């Protein structure tokens, strides 16, 4: 049951990250919430496997915070790669005039 709560919180944080950082026109609306949910779920399960208790506070902080950091990193990588690809395509399609 706690995993469900953690994943709902992660999806909300992923939505907040989408609107807090620039470049949201470069990817779909559900990309960052999905990345945050998957990353947080993997972290949560990994920490429970190594023995962290689900009712402890640190597993919540580390899993949710780690998922948010991974989401921010993915957003910055996607935005930078998309921006670079768009510039390259514009240069290529304009025949080098731009």
From TrEMBL:
The keyword Membrane applies. Keywords: Membrane, Transmembrane, Transmembrane helix. The chain crosses the membrane at residues 6-21, 28-52, 58-79. This is DUF4126 domain-containing protein.
């Amino acid at each position: 049951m706690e995993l469900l709560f953690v994943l709902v919180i992660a999806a909300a944080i992923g939505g907040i990250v989408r609107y807090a950082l620039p470049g949201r026109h470069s990817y779909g609306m559900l990309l960052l919430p999905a990345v945050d949910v998957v990353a947080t779920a993997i972290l949560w399960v990994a920490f429970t496997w190594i023995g962290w208790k689900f009712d402890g506070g640190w597993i919540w902080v580390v899993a949710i915070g780690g998922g948010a950091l991974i989401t921010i990193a993915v957003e910055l990588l996607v935005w930078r790669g998309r921006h670079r690809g768009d510039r390259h395509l514009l240069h290529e399609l304009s025949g080098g005039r731009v």
